[in-house]
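Worked Example 4.2. Read the sequence first, then its structure tokens.
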Amino acid sequence: MIETWRDLVLAPGGARGEVSPPTVAKVLNVALALVLLIGAVTLCLFFLDINWVWGSVWDHRSELFAGWLMTVGVTAVALVMSTLGGFVLALFQRSFFLPLRYFTKVLIEIVRCTPLLVLILVIWYGFCNVFRVENRYIAGILILTLFESAYISEIFRAGIESVGKSQIESARAIGFTRVQTYRYVIIPQAFRQVLPPLVGQLVSLIKDSSLLSYIAIKEFTFSAQQVNSNSYSTLETYLPLAVGYLLLTVPIALWSRWLERRFKYET
């Protein structure tokens, strides 16, 4: 067993070598936790007196898959737009124009202190009716973008402020303009800091997209609700729903943790 681990695990320097005990222990603990979790769920489902009816759900598999793809598409578009929006809002928070700075801060706090479901209902039944926005998908993407931009802007702001003032002053001393200081000094270092939490925010974005079902956007959760209404197989419908979200969120969460270790500054 030890020889097998030595063959599979690389030493920190990149060459094959001795396996550090914490690494082996961590892998074994994670594997044991997964086995226990799967075993516990299997036992619970086995002892429950449930008349499984998977056939009716299988007949609607194309609807579930279409909803899953819609969730992926809406999330991808909202991620790009909210990342750009969050970056712009972070810059606005550092603007020398005080009205713009304080307006941005108030907007961010209002959005962050409002539940997403309330925001969805207020914007869809309020602002969208006023401005004649009838496309639910566009409205849903814009709502998700607004909500996630508020959080992403704080991630960018924290990353920008993590750059030492001495470096900024040095850039100004050698004649860099404000734009050049951001481009060559602040943003490269801030990017290293914000990438892990930014990827982690993607997990929240995927989960938050399920609330778009309240305005009848045919994403994954809405499709599962429709299948449940047609098949009356509640557990058989919502178990694939949970698995579908886990297929999206678990790899991203693991990637986020890897990025945290990869880009962590040594103290």
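Now turn to a second chain, presented in exactly the same format:
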Amino acid sequence: MGVKAPPHDILKVLTWKRHTKLKYLEELRSLEGYEELAEAVSKHHRAWVSDKIAASAARIIYMDEENKVKSFWKPTGEFEIEPNPFFFRLYGERKEWNLEERKKLFERIIGIYKENGINEESHERVNEELSEYPQDSRFPLVSLKTHHWATWVLHTQLKEKRKEELNEVKATLFKISVYAPGLRERELGFHRLRDWRKFLRLKEQASVALSYLLGDFHPLRLKDCEEVLVLVTERKREELFRKLLESNLPIFAEAFTFRFVKEENKEYYKVGEVHHDYFGFGISEQFEVAPEKANWVHVLEGFERVAWLSMRTPGLYETAEAFIEEFEREFAPLQRKREVKWLPYELLISVAEGFSSFLEAFEKRSRSKRLTLRKVLKSFDFSLYLYGLKDEKGAFWLYNTARNVIKELQPHFPLNLSVVVADPKLPFWKVLETIENIKKGNALCIFRGDKMIELPDEAVDLVFKYRNNFERDARKQVHTLARIARKVSKKQLELEIEMRYAERKLSDDGYDALKAIVSRIARICGGNEEKRREITSAVLEAIEPFVRRE
């Protein structure tokens, strides 16, 4: 469900200085629907209360060296802008727009309207084109797509209000998702994979129902994710609650309520306060649907080992905070106009949208590295994928590949990656519990029967740092040492390595690598002897495929 709002700031693509002048849309004048688009373009800055709210309350204002409001670029002519406008993305390099690129983008937009007419479907395509074009020269972290949606939604809800009713405006941004026991509350875990499949089937049906249920609120669905964003004024909030309650769907909602107050003797608004809440609607453990075979279930049936790959963020607000801090570090020094005790609502929307794009990019780049993950669940807070393994050793390749993909994408926000490797018959509640218990950072977790080994990044790195040191060694030697490592102390293992080296069973490079690995793992594990033995054994087993055969 895309953004069908009329793109009222569309002309910023072509002429930042004169973005309300209709002469630049002359080619569209004869098309049906032109009048509505023209009115939005030419009158929004004067007539829309929502645009006046956005002008001051939807962004953080920075000051320059002369204590004036800082702009990251300025128009220098009818079409020229210096330096080039840019969009600071949630991940990767910022997207810059030179004049040639801007003109090409504008031509594509005009072409969409000429080909399909001026209607909601065309608006949706145009807004998608604007998903990485900046809305404001003072705060280049929000796209025109996001701004068009948020401003239009509030405008449709505020336009009938009397002037005296607009001195104070309350609006709530909801992040709504289908409730998932075991992911939202620890005590309601899935004890059977069948229950999980039933939930996913329910989620699919509920997502369709939500699309119809929330249609009047112009919801924004995060691409291929379970969440829907809804922005409502105080009056519409009660109507939304009513519809959610009547639906009896298992809904979980995170809400950010902003109070906008009109500044004295001015047309614009400031944020008075913000409240952060959570709501549940129709929550139940009962699943009244038949579980269908998901496209990832065959992975559980066709492999001896499976890997559950999860990615977690700290939450929408916390992610947005980290993102803005990254922006301020990159463009330091930046001085905020006033102390900011809350984050702009348009930034929260932009971050949510950016994360859904990040997940899409992660999947695409993983496939390019021959890592085809089966999607189980995609959401802002928690995403889960499944991958089949021939044996445990492939877990290190999978984990390292996923880490490298994330590193290449350059996320400007905190993200925890974990991979749980287990027998396909491991109870699903145990998988979720393991992921939940990883306190911080990334981890590779390997189940061996009832035992679980958690390998931090430092241990995984040892495999890829030293794997080429064993090109002249026999696989049998490494295999035997891996088995011994699980049973003996560090000192005994070091003596075993010294003995084999003295007998010329190990090469110089292999010997040096083994000493380094054993020593480093001991430091990683502190005084935990059992953990040291298990991790040392697992690392040596992972190195085996890189050692030559006899």
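Notes for the reader: The CA atoms of residues 101 and 125 lie 18 Å apart. Residues 181-191, 285-294 have pLDDT under 50 and may be disordered.
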